[in-house]
Design brief:
This protein has about 425 residues and is α/β, with parallel strands linked by helices. The longest helix has 25 residues, at about 310-335. The chain has three domains: about 15-80, Arc Repressor Mutant, subunit A (Orthogonal Bundle), CATH 1.10.10.10; about 85-200 and about 385-420, ATPase, nucleotide binding domain (Nucleotidyltransferase, domain 5, 2-Layer Sandwich); about 210-380, 2-Layer Sandwich (Nucleotidyltransferase, domain 5). It has helices at about 15-25, 35-40, 45-60, 120-135, 175-185, 195-205, 265, 270-280, 285-295, 300-310, 310-335, 350-365, 370, 385-400, 405, 415-420, and strands at about 60-65, 75-80, 85-90, 95-105, 110-115, 145-150, 155, 160-165, 190-195, 215-220, 220-230, 230, 340-345, 375-380. Helix 6 (about 195-205) packs across helix 14. It has 16 helices and 14 strands. A five-stranded mixed sheet has the order 5-4-3-6-9, sandwiched between helices. Strands 12-11-10-13-14 form a five-stranded mixed sheet, with helices on both faces. The chain has a two-stranded antiparallel ribbon with strand order 1-2.
């Protein structure tokens, strides 16, 4: 990227401020021609021309096609060069790893997936992730990496990028996830709870960023991502939304976290697998039992699919999970008052069978005012959801939170991003 006349920062000048704004107006497509930029910024025609030329020289913008004429000569459009760099997203689940490459506009260019047990620990897991990334990058030329996002299935201290006492991630507590990626790519790295990435993916699908939303993932474990006015609420220690470990009334079931009676131990995918295996051992019949006898042991995905296909045992397990999850969500609704609840994850993939039970419990147990305008829906169940959410997180951090710090250098730096946090 050309930076010959790039501006160097002491105090942020009016020139820098206007240049930043112009790049972001074009990037977000709020303005795509020079006349539109002038109307929105109040800058004179000559100043707009100068700033746009600087942005083009720096490599952020380029001229596009001619736009629609309003009576005179048609203005040439401008476009943000989203292809100038890549964002890498790594979505680590309890039993899988998904890696993707995105352009700076959030478009997922490529992805790969592998079954993986997160309990194998950080060293082996990150070795596998790096190999998956390297394989993807071989197909995309010498394009610089500007950001890396890593989603993990547990609480994260967002400032340090370290998991905090994650119940299903032995060996990960306090581990510096960012370091390997920073050393490999010399780019800023953000680490977050995987459900927060899913919530950001839902935000990106909507017409407005200003949304109050809960994304509840019911997979092997259970967690929730909370969006308040479009911003992730992480809490003081990264534990906001960790509803999988709230206590279920009258339950003494041991949980993987070491406590008893947790929601996850009663209604999570791993709990349903345990109950399915016990029921089959006790003589339960049906499609799930026949599949188990043939060697396809129950998993959260198989239970959800069998429930959709009418298997009585799976239906009972999914419905009971939904009722208990709905009770916990009702408490969140009363406290958080979201406009939308999105249900996702392997168990929620049972569709309306699961969703109907959740809706019933939420509306029964929540305040009428809190549910008056509430919408409870299933996620798109798109395997790219966490990748899109990770790209959204990177774009938010690069262009909303830290852009003024690294703009003059032409690309984000680890030091510049950290100085802004």
């Amino acid at each position: 990227m050309a930076t010959g006349s790039a501006l160097r920062f002491g105090a942020q000048t009016d020139e820098v401020t206007s240049l930043l704004r112009i790049v972001n107006l074009v990037r977000t497509e709020e303005a795509t021609t020079r006349p539109e930029i002038g109307r929105l910024t109040g800058l004179g025609r000559g100043v707009v021309t100068q700033r746009v030329d600087q942005a083009i020289e720096m490599g952020f913008l380029e001229d596009g096609e001619f736009g629609r004429s309003s009576g005179g000569r048609a203005p040439r459009t401008l476009r943000f060069r989203s292809e100038q760099a890549h964002i890498i997203v790594c979505a680590l689940g309890a039993l899988h790893v998904r890696v993707g490459i995105a352009a700076l506009d959030g478009d997922i260019l490529d992805q790969t997936h592998q079954d993986w047990d997160i309990a194998r620990g950080p060293a082996e897991t990150l070795d596998t992730v790096m190999a998956m990334i390297d394989e993807l990058l071989t197909h995309h030329g010498e394009v610089p990496v500007w950001a890396v996002v890593v989603g993990v299935p547990g609480p994260v201290d967002f400032e340090s990028g370290r998991p905090v006492a994650p119940p299903i991630m032995p060996g990960w507590n306090g581990f510096d996830v960012r370091r390997r990626f920073e050393q490999r790519f010399d780019a800023p790295v953000w680490v977050d709870n995987d459900v927060n990435l899913l919530a950001l993916s839902e935000r990106a699908r909507r017409d407005t960023d200003d949304v109050d939303l809960i994304y509840c993932k019911v997979g092997s474990g259970i967690g929730a991502g909370l969006l308040s006015h479009g911003r992730i609420h992480r809490g003081a220690n990264g534990a906001a939304g960790d509803i999988g470990h709230v206590r279920v009334r009258d339950s003494e079931t041991p949980c993987r976290c070491g406590k008893v009676g947790c929601l996850e131990a009663v209604a999570g995918g791993w709990a349903l697998v345990r109950e399915a295996e016990d029921a089959i051992a006790a003589g339960a019949t049906g499609a799930l039992a026949r599949a188990s006898a043939a060697g396809d042991t129950p998993t959260p995905d198989r239970i959800a699919r069998a429930a959709e296909d009418g298997d009585a045992l799976s239906i009972s397990l999914v419905q009971r999970s939904a009722r208990v999850v709905g009770e916990s969500i009702a408490a969140l609704v009363n406290m958080f008052n979201p406009g939308v609840i999105v249900m996702g994850g392997a168990i929620a993939a049972a569709g309306e069978l699961f969703l109907a039970e959740v809706r019933q419990r939420v509306y029964e147990l929540s305040l009428p005012l809190a549910t008056r305008d509430l919408s409870i829906v299933n996620s798109m169940n798109d395997e790219r959801e966490p990748l899109r959410g990770g790209a959204e997180l990177a774009r938010e951090q690069l262009f909303d939170a830290t852009f003024p710090r690294w703009f003059a250098d032409g690309r984000p730096t680890i030091e510049g991003v950290r100085a802004a946090s």
